[in-house]
Amino acid sequence: MIASQTVLLFIIAVSETSAEVLSGVWSGFAEYSTPHYFPTTRYRVTPQYTDFTVSSVTYWGKVNDFHAQSSDNSSWVNSRRAPLTFCAIGDNSFWFTGLQQSDDLTVPTSMAISQSSTHPSYVSDYSAFDPSSLIYFIPQSPEEAAIEANTAKLSMPRTNCAMISATRAVQFWDSWVDFASRGSFLVQYDLKVSNNSLTVTRFKDLYGSVAENQYSYGLFASMKVNSVVYMYALDTSEYGNSQDIFVASAPAEKVVVKSTWRYWHNSTQSWSTEEPLAVKSHKLDAIYSLSGSDTFAMGESLFSAGGSIFYSEYHSAYIMVYVSTDKTKYIIEYAPTPVGPWSTLKKVLYTDSKNSLAAALVTPAMFSTPAAAGKSGKSLLMTPASSNSEYDGLTYKLNFA
Ligand SMILES: *[C@@H]1O[C@H](CO)[C@@H](O)[C@H](O)[C@H]1NC(C)=O
Ligand SMILES: *[C@@H]1O[C@H](CO)[C@@H](O)[C@H](O)[C@H]1NC(C)=O
Ligand SMILES: CC(=O)N[C@H]1CO[C@H](CO)[C@@H](O)[C@@H]1O
User: What is the Å distance from ligand 3's center to 71 Cα?
Assistant: First the structure.
């Protein structure tokens, strides 16, 4: 069933009243109800079923934009840059991706709304509504807007959202100009169900360039557990000859206020106001490390994904999924708390040598629905890109035994 198209009305307004915030409002999109549930849990849990036996994996199709097809913009169906990131807000599903213009590398960001939890790959793409005037879904700062049109610039999310409440989620985006990262910024999405609008807000102290040696918390992964958001960062510097994951946390309601963030120091097993920097002395504060020549996908290419970290009610465990160094396997690790200690077994969850896994993410949210058989985490949605085209986002459903 294809929901009827509604006329798109949108307003992007850079706030005049406050220098601290940039915001835009999208409204008029079709109403798609995709009820999710998010289990609450204790901070410390007792993992189970950690053999992670998979019973089946089924292909659920390419992410298709029915709007583009119905208006005969079929070429735009495929112009969806991986990674595809998934954002559950209340009973709605959104996909956020980069979208590339063909002539140059100016990449407006895009929003797509998935139709239903039973067809995750059916979307309406509002950024491609009129391909002749691609839209910056994420409001740009005046500084970003001033960058010359033919300069390669893009903003893209690399991992799924953290849902804050039934009407709010946050996501971290990576900002690049001339193939150099400007660092990440936090985007807050507020869904107003009564008039079906999405307000997109950026906060000034959470965008712009990160300093040298400063980590981009939240860009590798983020999740909310009860009233706390955990934001994971990847270190790719060469100080310690390994790739390390660090974590910060903040009260969910205050995550946009950076002074509320606390940083986990693994060496002392405690939260601190001191932000670990990418220097050798902080290596011991990582919560997970890939040693030797192993690498995470993120950081290797402009269009690679971070990791996927979430709570699985089925496994009663915090789960981390990332892609193997050779980009053919999903690797799964687990922990009893959001900070670890994480398993270091590098267990292969699933091998997929057909598709392009550098951009692959995993989420339980799409199948954490009231109608789903089993607990949240029993089924996962995997979203690799097609190896034929990195513009084709694909969906697979994995069921645990
Ligand atoms: C819907 O509500 C938002 C937030 O209050 C508002 O900014 C927007 O203009 C409204 N949209 C319409 C179409 O009324
Ligand atoms: C973090 O600390 C815990 C507890 O001491 C330890 O088991 C774990 O190996 C440490 N993690 C890393 C990546 O060093
Ligand atoms: C390239 C192309 O086919 N563009 C069309 C996309 O759809 C809009 C709205 O129907 C048309 O105006 C464009 O010509």
Answer: 6
pLDDT of residue 11: 33
Whether the predicted pLDDT of 117 surpasses 80? no
Residue 357 CA to ligand 2 center (angstroms) comes to 28
Mean pLDDT of 208-234: 88
**Residue 9: CB within 6 Å of ligand 1?**
yes
Q: Is 131 in the pocket of ligand 3 (CB under 6 A)?
A: yes
Rounded CA-CA distance 208/233 in Å is 17
Rounded to whole angstroms, the Cα distance separating 94 from 232 reads 21
Find out whether the beta carbon of 102 lies less than 6 Å from any atom of ligand 3. no
Cβ-Cβ contacts under 8 Å for 292 (sequence gap 6 or more)? 242
Which atom of ligand 1 is found nearest the CA of 197? 1
Looking from the CA of residue 245, the nearest atom of ligand 2 is 13
Question: What size, in residues, is the chain?
Answer: 401
Give the HSE-up count for residue 169: Cα atoms under 13 Å, Cβ half-sphere: 25
CA distance 364 to 379: 6
Closest ligand 2 atom to residue 287 Cα is 13
Q: Which-ligand-closest: CA of 6?
A: 1
Query: Could you read off the pLDDT of 135-152 as tens digits, one per residue?
Result: 567 777 777 777 776 666
Segment (H or E) for 76 = helix 74-77
pLDDT in tens, 357-378: 999 999 999 889 888 878 999 9
Contact in structure between 252 and 224 (CB atoms under 8 Å): yes
Q: Is the pLDDT of residue 112 over 90?
A: no
Residue 264: nearest ligand to its CA? 2
pLDDT beyond 80 at 269 = yes
The residue whose two tokens read 């692959």 is 360
